[in-house]
Write a structure and sequence with these properties.
About 20% of the residues lie in helices and about 30% in strands. The protein is an alpha+beta fold. It folds into 3 domains: about 60 residues, Structural Genomics Hypothetical 15.5 Kd Protein In mrcA-pckA Intergenic Region, Chain A, CATH 3.10.290; about 100 residues, Pseudouridine synthase (2-Layer Sandwich), CATH 3.30.2350; about 140 residues, Pseudouridine synthase (2-Layer Sandwich).
């Protein structure tokens, strides 16, 4: 449904560019705000304006927000390289490979976990949005490792609750640049979309509560291998928090990693792996744990780092 809103420009936005003002008022990305302005969906004091126009306190904004495009339905086809770590009537735990999204989204044309499961004839929970059926948590497309999908409706309900209440033990290993100081610690910093609107996320005042615990497993000459436990599960959380500490994940060029080091390690994505996942089984109540070995690209990069200075 189309949403139309009319409101005055607050005093605090005096002199801001129109696209920046819209982004701050409505929580859009700057690029989304610019699209609305270009489509003529934004009037400033009754007239069409340009994204670079400056707004003045008290001026009237008339904004028409079209409904977001619907995500595509999952394509049911097997996903090469995606293996099953565990399966029963209620859950299936997959070892997600690189380049696979959890579920379809607008703009994503690659393979998905849900499509891969459906492509092998597996049944998944029908709860949730059509394109996300059975999905109770997500990994970035280029983050590998253990991920659970609900098969039964009861499993979906209980696992969603467990993730929301933070009773799931999610462990990641990350190879980050440099050495952490202190070697063990907690990052408690809110995350939201980056003000640039370029698809990144960032530590932003007023963002969503985000907590990351880390512990150094091994320090090498140019990098450190960390064990990371998440309390929250924000988009790009580990990548954003490590970047904010000036220790981005090796290979993570989007968040400031050194491209020279990435090339030397043969990395085409962030060195980040969901190494284990543990939770109360939704059917039996038993505490269950699953682990995923490092994929070849991460294992090779770690080997190169470990050999430095020997």
């Amino acid at each position: 449904m189309t949403d139309r809103r009319t409101l005055p420009v607050p005093d605090g936005l005096e002199g801001e560019r129109l696209d920046a003002a819209l982004a701050r008022l409505f929580g859009f990305s700057r690029s989304r705000a610019a699209e609305l302005i270009a489509e003529g969906d934004v009037l400033l004091d009754g007239s069409v304006a340009a994204k670079s126009d400056r707004v003045h306190a008290g001026a009237w904004l008339d904004v028409t927000i079209p409904p977001p495009p619907a995500a595509p339905a999952p394509v049911a086809e097997p996903v090469p390289g995606m293996s099953i770590l565990y399966e029963d009537d209620d859950i299936v735990v997959v070892d997600k490979p690189i380049g696979v999204a959890a579920h379809p989204t607008v703009g994503w044309t690659g393979p998905t976990v849900i499509g891969g499961l459906l492509g092998t004839g597996r049944r998944v929970s029908t709860s949730g949005a059509a394109e996300r059926q059975g999905i109770v948590h997500r990994l970035d497309a280029n983050t590998t490792g253990a991920m659970v999908v609900a098969k039964s409706e009861r499993a979906y309900t209980l696992l969603k609750r467990a993730f929301k209440e933070r009773t799931v033990d999610k462990r990641y290993h990350a190879l980050v640049q440099g050495h952490m100081d202190p070697l063990r610690g907690t990052v408690d910093a809110p995350i939201d979309r980056h003000p640039s609107g370029d698809g990144r996320f960032a530590v932003v005042a007023g963002g969503r509560d985000s907590v990351t615990h880390y512990d150094t497993l091994e320090a090498f000459r140019s990098a450190s291998l960390l064990d990371i436990k998440l309390e929250t599960g924000r988009t790009h959380q580990i990548r954003v928090h490590m970047s904010a500490l000036r220790h981005p994940c090796a290979g993570d060029l989007l968040y400031g990693a050194d491209p020279t080091l990435a090339a030397r390690l043969g990395l085409t994505r962030q060195w980040l792996h969901a190494v284990s996942l543990a939770f109360e089984h939704p059917a039996t109540g038993e505490w269950v744990s699953f682990s995923s070995p490092y994929p070849d690209d991460l294992a090779k990069a770690l080997e190169i780092v470990a050999d430095d200075g020997r």
